[in-house]
Amino acid sequence: MSIFSNFADYPNQIKNEGQEITIRFTRTSDTTAKITWNIPAPANGCNSENQAYDGIVVTISNTPANYTTTSPKDGVYYNADHTADKDLFTGDIIDSKAYVIGAFYHDKTTVELNIDGIQPKVPYYVSGYAVDAVGRYHREGVHAYSLPTGTQSFTTEDYPATHDISVYSNEPITLKTRTGLVAGTDYTLPIKVECKVRDFIINGEKALTYGMLVDEINRQFMAIESPFQGPYPKHSGDYFLKDSIVYKWSGHKIENVEYVELDHDPRIPVLGTYWIGSDGILRRYENTGWEVVDIIRSDDPPTELDNYDIWFDGITVRVWEGNHWCDYNTIFSDRNPQFPPELNVGDYWFNNELNEFFKWNGKTQSWDDALVIYYDIDPNLLTNGNYWYDEKQSKIKQMVNDKWSTLVGVLYVPSNDSGNFPDDLPYDIVAGTKWYDTKLNKFYERNLMNIDWDELRFVSFPTNPKNRKSCDLWWNSSETIDDLYVWENVSNSWITVQNFYRQTIDPITPPVLVEHSAWVTSDGEIYLIGPDNCQKVDTIFSLVDPRIIPTGSVWWNGSDYFEYDGTNWNIIHIIQYSNDPYLVFEGMLWFDATNKKLYRMELSGWTEVCLYDQSILPRIDDLWYNSVDKLLFRWSGTAWLPEKPYLYVEFQKRSCDNKYERLVFKTSKTGCHEEFEVLESKNTVLSSLSNSIIYGDPMEGGSGLDAGVMYKQLDVGDDGSPDERRQLHSELRMLLGYPAIKSELSKQQIDLCIDNALLMLRKHSTYSYKRGMFFMNLRSNQQIYMLTNKCVGFNKIVDILAIRRTKAGAFRTAYSQNDNFAYAALQQLYTLGTFDMLTFHMTSAYVEELETLFASRIMYQWLERSRELKIYQVPRSGERVLVEAIIERTEQELMTDRETTYWLKRWALNEAKGMLAQIRGKFQSLPGPNGTTVLNASELQAQVDAERMTLIEEIESKAMQDIVDLGMKVHFVMG
Questions:
Q1: How far apart are CA 916 and CA 736, in angstroms?
Q2: Does residue 267 lie in a domain region?
Q3: Which of 132, 452, 622, 686 can bridge 635 by disulfide, Cβ–Cβ 3.0-4.6 Å?
């Protein structure tokens, strides 16, 4: 690896590549849209092997993305569904808001996605998240719109609100221990939630043991969550209309139902009604019953002929040429007839011209020489008297006593040009003489009259033809058969060869088609074959000439059916039903399309069935309480998933640290917004237990611990808006000469310049922070506090200046609620009602001494990275204190503040000039069309050094310090 290259696995590689993606959302119709994006260039240069990008996950929502919740989670692979219709969506949903419409893993080529289910005049927010090969995502993602939020990740999760109720007993309590509640008596369980008190009624009969008590409380918590309760989900078994089609909702999924769609009672057949059954055949109801109707298929009305229209009657393809039809040479095949046949292993070819036999080699895709037995008798059935020409010995043999014997006296001579035995040879020819014509490979015997030669049949082969081996070939030369066979040892039989070519031209040679040929596939597609290609054409499929279509003919244009009245085509309704729609039976459904009513056939006749004119499917996050199983479910969009209620209770056994069993009430939701309290009062279900109970303090839900440095966290050092940073990007490029001069710096390098400027300002200038005051509740005997609460703003604290008690320890009197009155009392002690500066100074010194003596100032230690606050004076009871702290300012504030904007811009520009000096310093000059060009690396470096000294001097001279409010370097003050 070059010293100038990045590491192949450097951190944030997928982020650096992912932020170079541009994703776009374009509506293509009222219900469809196209999403496009680009493949980013590798962050490590032009070598795609080191590219982190390995795919993308695309989400869509009706609300903007939230980086905290709607971003994909590392290591999770998502399933997608290419539709925005929430009722039909079957993919994964992130945070119940972001629908995963595209999940392309290990895919570096796909750059577009078509989706349906889009609703008109509804906002859609599309986001794309690049993913690498190990499932790590670019969490910030890219979006087809501007976002006001940033990125965030957690090292600990948010935690729920809790309230512990301890149960005191000398012996351990189990779920089978009796509670002491009386059957038939109702007890209340008051709980305060969101400032409202709700009383749950617990019958003693359902809470006789602690296990029954926990189950009954949880049952009531679940039941109160769902507006719909029952053994089945809402609308189970009901029917609804969608796009004029009747569907049935089973409670768990949409079911297609079969019904007859008619505007009249199916018990009364109507002449002229059309029906397509399960066999796909169109029928029309006539006086004699259902009659089959031939369908004319074409995109346009078949009676409106234009030049070069194509008509196919099932036998011949024809082209309309103004006033007549021209026939095309019609070829029926599932394979392009211009292509040569697909040859496979087991295909054979006999060259008629060369009398050569070949076998196709599938590995080399060529013909190999092959041997074949050419005879009209099965070689296994050769008997005594049969002849065999041994090609190895070039001798004729005859079978005698089931053995082959070489014939003696056979004349092996070639025939003359006339094909006769040569007259100039010194042989005595007598009756019975045998002659083998070595020229024509024929075998003869002189007849008894010694006048002519009679041809004898024989089998020619290099080896004994009766000794068959696996895959030996036999060509049955019989005129009635003429087939090729191969011997198979497994079945001990001859297997017929499927593809045996007997021609002069090599079968692999593409065929030569006649001009004006048409190709018809088994799917009914028509192609016209030209000199160079095949062109698919729209066709009129009709058994009759389109010029003379009879009245009553039916035409289908791909979506609708029409009937011809002799002049016009009129749209008709087709009944699509598996069986005869006029054979009514019990349970049959009939949909009256005219009145939008659904009926079911009962013994008493047609009974109207409730039919909803809109979708009755549950919405995402709808709840259903199953009253039979006593479980709460949430609809995910595809299925009912078990769901915890907002409140639930757990039974926890005693441990080494806790000598009591506990009823722990919790919230299923987490975070600092969650809070509740189990109220303590008489005659409640808890106070009526046979065991004593101790109420703990209710604990509010809290925020988890954020990962990383504070100034990179969302809503702390970054509010997530990229606008300010992009504006600074643009200004820096213009300061470097753009657009007249194109800078050599990339976006990543300019980002680094801005980051360095922010780091310098945060380190040295108090303008990067501001003072904050927070109230905090100290708990008895608790020393360590985690300051992560986002609702209060604890997560923004950089440093703590002081922790002050709101009740001064020296004045626990009538003045203890307000220190102003304490100061007034001190003033009376010193001046008897008068006031001057000396008195104020002495009073302040006296109060400070009292705060030290009486612990009004609390000693502490603050650890920023772990967010831990350690209190060294632990209170024995709860107390409310005031925390004086320094909090982080966001980078967006610093980039727009009048005190810091210009300094940041100058420092970032100085960083950019330093980078350019490093780049241009590699060469002193560059060759050009008008001579060499001298680079300004030295000049830039001189500017960098001078400007850096000026900027640092502004910090040291307090020009860049908030002296009045914060002083200097306040974030290093320790408690």
A1: 10
A2: no
A3: 622
Please tell me what DSSP assigns to residue 971: G
| pLDDT for position 836 | 64
Final residue in a domain of this structure, among 695, 727, 743: 695
C-alpha neighbours within 13 Å on the C-beta side of residue 96: 8
What pLDDT does 923 receive?
67
Q: Which residues form the domain of 324?
A: 310-339+512-548
Strands 661-670, 160-168: parallel, antiparallel or unpaired by DSSP?
antiparallel
pLDDT for the residue 970: 46
Structure tokens at 773: 């005051």
The answer to whether residues 369 and 490 belong to one domain is: yes
- Which long-range CB contacts under 8 A does 844-849 form with residues at least 24 apart? 847/808, 847/810, 847/822, 847/823
Do 451 and 532 sit in the same domain of this protein? Answer: no
Cα gap 655→652, rounded to integer Å:
9
- CA distances to 716, 795, 799 from 863, rounded to whole Å, are 17, 12, 8
Interior angle at CA 243, CA 237 and CA 246, nearest 5: 30
What's residue 92's pLDDT? 93
Whether the Cβ atoms of residue 387 and residue 457 lie closer than 8 Å to each other: yes
Query: Are 429 and 447 in contact, with CB atoms under 8 Å apart?
Result: no
CA 742 to chain centre: 40
The answer to whether position 833 is within a domain reads no
DSSP letter at 811 equals -
Residue 911 has a pLDDT of 92
Token digits of residue 359: 């076998």
Helix (H), strand (E) at residue 863 = strand 860-863
**Two structure tokens written together for 826:** 């001190």
d(CA 25, CA 518): 43
Residues 678 and 793 in one domain: no
**For strand 238-242 and strand 611-612, is the pairing parallel, antiparallel, or unpaired?**
parallel
Same domain (yes/no): 874, 734: yes
Q: Would you state the pLDDT for residue 975?
A: 37
For residue 663, the Cα-to-chain-centroid distance in whole angstroms is: 42
Specify burial of residue 161 (Cβ count, 10 A radius: 0-12, 13-18, 19+).
buried
The predicted model scores a pTM of 0.55
| Number of Cβ atoms within 10 Å of the Cβ of 675 | 18
Question: What φ, ψ does residue 540 adopt, rounded to 5°?
Answer: -95, 115
pLDDT of residue 812: 46
Question: Residue 617 contacts by C-beta under 8 Å, 6 or more apart in sequence?
Answer: 87, 249, 254
Q: Which two tokens stand for residue 514?
A: 């006649």
Residue 925 included in any domain: yes
**Separation of alpha carbons 44 and 308, rounded Å:** 57
Low-confidence ranges of the chain (pLDDT < 50): 1-5, 149-154, 810-818, 832, 969-975
Closest-CA residue to 37 (of 12, 13, 52, 19): 19
Tokens coding 924: 């002193």
Reading phi first (left if > 0) and then psi (alpha if -120 to 50, else beta), residue 226 is in beta
Q: Is 235 left (phi over 0), alpha (psi -120 to 50) or beta?
A: left
**Chain Cα centroid distance, residue 310:** 43
719 and 783 share a domain?
yes
Element (H, E) at 954: helix 937-956
Q: Are residues 405 and 398 in contact, defined by beta-carbon separation less than 8 angstroms? A: yes
**Cβ(703)–Cβ(789) below 8 Å:** yes
Evaluate whether 290 touches 277 at the Cβ level (below 8 Å).
no
Residues 626/628/629/633 CA torsion (nearest 10 deg): 0
| CA gap 494, 499 in Å, rounded | 15
Number of H helices, E strands in the chain: 9, 67
Last residue of a domain, one of 629, 664, 695: 695
**For residues 59 and 103, what is the distance between their CA atoms, to the nearest angstrom?**
9
Alpha-carbon distance of 150 to 143, in angstroms, equals: 12
* pLDDT for the residue 817: 43
Residue 524 lies in a domain: yes
- Number of folded domains that form the chain: 5
DSSP assignment, residue 851?
Answer: H
Q: Name the 3-class secondary structure at 321.
A: coil
